[in-house]
Each structure stands twice: as structure tokens, then as C-alpha cells.
């Protein structure tokens, strides 16, 4: 990479090399924010359903239990997406550290940087894929029951 830095220009070149991974970190952070918000909404929904399920019987109980199982699966998927994305961010940080270390010391770290960046991209792609599965599961689970779609309000007598 670069020889031992003797000037601010060489340090500036290392900083320029590190900018792209830092922008990647900003994108991963935004994605993590989306995942955390989604996880929070799923947890809130499950907490609202738990008491209803305990008080219900028959078909309503079965419906609520089914919905809670789906929410539990979705929580696990979003948690995996978060793990994979955080792993990608950590690997990207390691890339930035190696860029600086190699630039400041003159060490040959091109291969480790490339491997870490590839691992970061694979981890991020895995997180996106898991998130896609979760969103599809969530959209399939939200179905309006036919009984509600066909429900008509009775006219109030005496109006």
C-alpha cells in the first residue's frame, strides 16, 4: 500500500481510501434502525396479543395462538438480520482499521482487507435476505378475515 507516512498528504490518501467503507457503515446503521423499529413493533404486537389469547377460547384462541407463533418466528428472523448486519458493520470497521494500519506502517494488508470486505458484503447480503423473508412472512400473515370483510353494521332503531 503506502510507505510509512511522512506527510499529511499520505495520511489524507489513507483517509480517502477509508471514506467508502465509512459510508457503507452509515447505510448499515440506517438498515439496523429499520430492523430495530420493526422488531419493536413485532414485540409490541405480541405483548398486546398475549393477554387476549389467555382470555380467549375456541376458534379465537386458535387464531391468536397462530398469530403469536408467526410473531415469534418474525422476531427470530429480524434478530438474525440484525446480527448479520452488525457482523457486517464490525467487519467493515476492521477494514477501515487495516486501511489505516497498512497506510501508516507500510504493511502489506491488501489480501486481509479484501477478504474482510468480501465477508462484510456476504454478511450484509445475508442480513438483507433474512429481512426479505421476514417482510414476506409479515405481509402474508396480515390477512383480513372474511367474516370481517362481510360484516355489516346493524341499523340503530329509532334514528
Description:
- The protein has four helices and no strands.
- The protein has 159 residues and is mainly α.
- The longest helix has 48 residues, at 8-55.
List the helices and strands and how they pair.
Layout: H1 8-55, H2 58-105, H3 110-141, H4 146-149
Descriptors for this entry?
83% helix, mainly alpha, rod-shaped, single chain, 159 residues, 0% strand
Mean pLDDT: 88
Relative strand content = under 5%
List unreliable stretches of 5+ residues.
none
Structural class: mainly alpha
Largest sheet: none
Helical proportion, percent range: over 70%
Briefly, what is this?
This protein is an all-alpha fold and 159 residues long. The chain has helices spanning 8-55, 58-105, 110-141, 146-149. The model has no long low-confidence stretch (mean pLDDT 88).
Amino acid at each position: 500500500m503506502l510507505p510509512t507516512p511522512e506527510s499529511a498528504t499520505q495520511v489524507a490518501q489513507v483517509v480517502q481510501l477509508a471514506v467508502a467503507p465509512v459510508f457503507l457503515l452509515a447505510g448499515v446503521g440506517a438498515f439496523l434502525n429499520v430492523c430495530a423499529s420493526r422488531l419493536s413493533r413485532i414485540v409490541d404486537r405480541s405483548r398486546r396479543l398475549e393477554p387476549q389469547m389467555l382470555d380467549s377460547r375456541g376458534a379465537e384462541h386458535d387464531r391468536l395462538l397462530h398469530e403469536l407463533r408467526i410473531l415469534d418466528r418474525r422476531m427470530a428472523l429480524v434478530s438474525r438480520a440484525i446480527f448479520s448486519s452488525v457482523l457486517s458493520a464490525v467487519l467493515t470497521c476492521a477494514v477501515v482499521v487495516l486501511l489505516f494500519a497498512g497506510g501508516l506502517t507500510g504493511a502489506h494488508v491488501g489480501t486481509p482487507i479484501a477478504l474482510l470486505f468480501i465477508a462484510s458484503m456476504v454478511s450484509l447480503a445475508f442480513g438483507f435476505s433474512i429481512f426479505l423473508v421476514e417482510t414476506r412472512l409479515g405481509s402474508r400473515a396480515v390477512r383480513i378475515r372474511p367474516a370481517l370483510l362481510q360484516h355489516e353494521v346493524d341499523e340503530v332503531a329509532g334514528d
